[in-house]
Amino acid sequence: EVIITPTYNERENIIRHLTSLSSLYPEAELIVIDDGSPDGTAAVVKEFISSHPQVILLERKEKTGLGDAYKYVLSGLIDRNDISNIYTIDADGSHDPGYISLLRRALQEADLAVGSRYVKDGGVENWGIIRRMLSKWGNIYVEYILGIPITDMTAGFVGFSHTMLKKIDIHSIASAGYAYQIEFKYRLIKAGGKAIEVPIIFKERTAGTSKITL
């Protein structure tokens, strides 16, 4: 299994994040894709790697969007035959690494497992009412327009089978930024993938700043 974490200026969070992942999933390959963070995120990851060989650091020279970072990583995994499932998770503490075990369980009967804030028992912590409404109604809009029965299409905490990854053309995904989250799920499902939503509690970051833009 492979767990992918995209980073940009996550020096304050990344070691805590990787320590948790390596402890919970010692058998997994942990890939960090850093977009040239000026705060030295890559440097602290390299130091961590010296005692944690399961961690792999990929560096991009510039920040061109979350979607571009994911496409860069996934394109290098398509032809590998030693991978069962792939997971994506944020480094800022908003996604509890413990939920990966639930995504793994869901992938026993599905091709895509979505860590969802908007199914029963899911939710968010420390968000204001405006941000809650924007996220909730934005997802309702996307679900209606695309006709995809997923309540959290913008979720970044997902798991999917390597077999399903091979069925889509990752390079044809047009979205470079956060919209990638929507387009990737859409393409997996249109390629015949079965999706399951797993309830999670999303926690607002405690260190660093959000990268999302208008």
Describe the structure in your own words:
It is built from 7 helices and 9 strands. The protein has 214 residues and is an alpha/beta fold. Strands 3-2-1-4-7-5-8 form a 7-stranded mixed beta sheet, sandwiched between helices. A two-stranded parallel ribbon has the order 6-9. The relative contact order is 0.19.
Distance between the termini: 34 Å
Question: Compute the gyration radius: what is it?
Answer: 16 Å
The overall pLDDT average reads 92
Major beta sheet, specifics?
Answer: 7 strands, mixed
What is the SS-derived class? alpha/beta
Number of strands: 9
Shape: globular
How much helicity do the residues have?
25-40%
Proportion of beta-strand residues? 15-25%
**What's the number of helices?**
7
Sheet with most strands: strand arrangement: 3-2-1-4-7-5-8
Residue ranges: pLDDT <50 for 5 or more in a row?
A: none
The string of secondary-structure elements, in order, is EHEHEHEHEEHEHHEE
Summary of the model, kept short:
By secondary structure, the chain is of the alpha/beta class.
Give structural attributes.
214 residues; alpha/beta; 7-stranded mixed β-sheet; two-stranded parallel sheet; 7 helices; globular
Explain the layout of strands and helices.
Elements: E1 2-7, H1 14-24, E2 29-34, H2 41-49, E3 55-59, H3 66-75, E4 85-88, H4 100-106, E5 112-116, E6 123-125, H5 129-146, E7 158-161, H6 162-165, H7 180-190, E8 195-199, E9 201-203
Parallel strand pairs: 1-2, 1-4, 2-3, 5-8, 6-9
Antiparallel strand pairs: 4-7, 5-7
